[in-house]
Amino acid sequence: MDEEGATGYRRVLAQLRADVLGVLQPGDGLPPERELAARFGVARMTVRRALDELATEGLIDRLVGVGTFVAYPKRSIHVQLTSYTEEMTRRGMIPTATVLDFGTVAASDHVARQLRLEPGDPVVRYRRLFYADGEPMSVDENFLVPHHVPGMVRASPPPSLYRYLNEEHGLVIEWGEDTIEATSATSSLARLLKIDARDPLLKIERRAYVGRVVVDFSISYYRADRYRLSVPLQRPRRSHQGNRPLLRDR
């Protein structure tokens, strides 16, 4: 790129970044490349390079066949022992939750395998939709073995599952194992999270332990446009339990 082209690129990039950060709102659409090229008096390739840079910075989302939009700020999922309420409050947001399902169901093959049960064995299912500032953020589904939490389904759904396990049953979640993958939204998840079907989601499955016993198995679906994953790392230390990440409260 010659000096004139480089100057034009820097000018376009600076102005678009200023628009995205100071004028437009998350979710607002940007004009097509040809309109931006005419506005700045540069080639479409120059505009495309500037948009690519903004997308790399996470400031815009480019959806093929749909358009270019100002990205929503992503909230970090910190794998640590803090509740959803504490985490969102720390970020200056108002957390709330809606209970979607709470009761006893028959364990599927997958859930039974995670909880070391037989398929069809009864498990407590606790499914919630989490919000921040009134916007849906994630759908969480927890499964527990009934004899670990006697009487749980006869009471009201607890606002904080880990606090309830500790205070009512003396179970302190000590460590866990997470499986993290990308997936797409089903129609039902899309309706709950107010996104389109097949939009990207971050899926996290967790086995939470007290000692060597799996007390809770959970499946969480996070909006990929609102979250990024942050995992603290450290060198392993010698322990009969190994190096265990801290847990975010459910």
From TrEMBL:
Protein name (database record): GntR family transcriptional regulator
Keywords assigned: DNA-binding, Transcription, Transcription regulation
Family matches, as CDD domains: WHTH_GntR
MF GO annotations: DNA binding; DNA-binding transcription factor activity
Domain HTH gntR-type: 6-73
GO BP field: negative regulation of DNA-templated transcription
A matching Pfam family: GntR
Domain of life: Bacteria
Transmembrane regions listed in the UniProt entry: none
InterPro entries hit by this protein: Bact_HTH_transcr_reg, Chorismate_lyase_/UTRA_dom_sf, Tscrpt_reg_HTH_GntR, UTRA, WH-like_DNA-bd_sf, WH_DNA-bd_sf
PROSITE patterns: HTH_GNTR
Species of provenance: Tersicoccus phoenicis
